[in-house]
Amino acid sequence: MFEVAPDLSGRWPTEAACFDEVMHLEGELFREFANRRTLRAELGQQPCFVKLHLGVGWPEIAKNLLTFRAPVLGASNEWRALNLLTRLGVRVPRPLAYAVRGVNPARQHSFVVMEALDGLMSLEELTETWRGHPPRPRVRAILAESLADLTRTLHENGVNHRDYYLCHVLVDPAWAATRVPPTEAPTLHLIDLHRAQIRDRVPERWRVKDVGGLLFSAFEARPSRTDLARFVRGYTGKSLRASLAEDRTFWRRVLRRARRLYLQDHPEVPAWVAALERELA
């Protein structure tokens, strides 16, 4: 299988031409695992990211199946998610090319090439700057609402991220740097979709994992009660009172998921998290 953006069809008229060039691209290595590499390279004058999948092997497939998880066999998940989210108006890296070789799922080679998003910072990086310089309340409020809108768009359209943390949501740092309180929502960009899943409807357990992961990654940013309420209202489309009455089990599971992730590296959860747990009990 071979797909390429229209503006690159002249560069890669055939699958063989595309595969041979991309597999031998040189650039800055960002991540490397046993069967996957991510590097930053340039196509002409265009900076891009290339994710190479070199076959996961049968042991990895068996491990996932035995734990009732769908194994990530290659780059197809990310390619499909990038294209779907682009159609939905979600800002993601522009998908440039995708190809796969081989029929044996354990030994398939595949890749996805996407445009690099330069000049942006992650929300994790942004919130780390808040420790010494707390943001204006309006900044926190708009970010909570924007994250709720993004999350709702994903889940309402059958997409769950599976690595949904603040570090994978990017924003223009100039948006929060101005001294004038912002009046418009920032443009959020979503990255690292290689484990994303697409269905007709996202099961609740996967919604819990996404929202719980997002909440966990915000623990150090100390979201206020107002921030959390804005997210709940934006994500559910209900009033806070209605959502806590109708979706209480969901929010308990979200908080439990976030708590479990946090306790993997910390002896105890922050006091404000413990207080929320008592209120939702």
Mind explaining what this structure looks like?
With 281 residues, this protein is α+β, with helices and mostly antiparallel strands. The protein folds into 2 domains: 2-115, Phosphorylase Kinase, domain 1; 121-280, Transferase(Phosphotransferase) domain 1 (Transferase(Phosphotransferase), domain 1, Orthogonal Bundle). The protein contains 11 helices and 11 strands. The chain has helices at 15-23, 58-66, 76-88, 123-128, 137-156, 173-177, 204-217, 225-236, 240-246, 248-262, 271-280, and strands at residues 2-4, 28-32, 36-43, 46-53, 95-101, 109-115, 121-122, 159-160, 169-171, 189-190, 197-198. The strands form 3 sheets. Strands 1-5-6-4-3-2 form a 6-stranded antiparallel sheet, sandwiched between helices. Strands 7-9-10 form a 3-stranded antiparallel sheet. It has a two-stranded antiparallel sheet with strand order 8-11. Strand 3 and strand 4 (46-53) form a beta hairpin. Helix 5 (137-156) runs parallel beside helix 8 (225-236) and helix 7 crosses helix 10 (248-262). It is globular. The model has no long low-confidence stretch (mean pLDDT 91).
